[in-house]
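REVIEWER CHECKLIST
Item 1: Sequence provided? yes
Item 2: Single chain? yes
Item 3: Sequence as submitted:
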Amino acid sequence: MEKYKLLAVDETGKASYSHHSTRFILMGVIMPEESKPKIDAKMRKVKKKYFRDEEIVFHSRDMSRNKGPFKPLEDSKTELGFWSDFISVVNSPEISLVITIVDKISAKEASWQPATILKRSYLKAIENFSLQLKLTGKCGKIICESDPSQDLQLINAHNKVQGGGTTDGKVSADEYRKLVTSLSFVNKSNSDVDVQIADALAPIAGMKYEIDVLKKAKKLTKTELSKKRLIDRKLSDKTNPSYLDVLI
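Item 4: Structure as written out by the authors:
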């Protein structure tokens, strides 16, 4: 049986200039399909330990604000414990990341339309995914949380690579069609662990961007430092590479 890798995609911020967000961050989480049940079981234990509910769905906005079912994170020790356990699961060498960041102020100055932000972000993410598949000899499936205002741009990016290959020429159109066998959308009530991890990690990529790219001085808490170190470790892993691209 063919072994597949999954790319689960979610984002923080919106491409629309009317939205208050200053950047659009696309987070992709890659894991082997056969490892997904194991990762899910581990994350369910973490959820039950801290929230007494293994069915709870991670949503970064509520988690960052300690709202609703994530209110226990108001306690600093609980917060540190939760993120330590969360990171321990995600730190699996089987999991890698694809991160794309667009500064919306720069994008607007360059006359990018919101559709351009979306399409170029999705295009870079799936190009990196297809390259990893080619290097590892695996096939892949793409899963994205559906947003009617954005889905078309992911489809357009997918079709562009299917028709012409990656923009850097490293993966041909024929290779891509053999490597990436499906593209699917899930709704916000979806409970797939890889999509939830992507949702939870997206704001952490934003923190790394502010510190390492914008050079904003920031004294990190123990929790913030452990989050940033996770991204740094993933990006430095040469065996199962992760990718970070700042488009503008």
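Item 5: Key structural point noted by reviewer: The longest strand covers residues 23-32.
Item 6: Recommendation: ____
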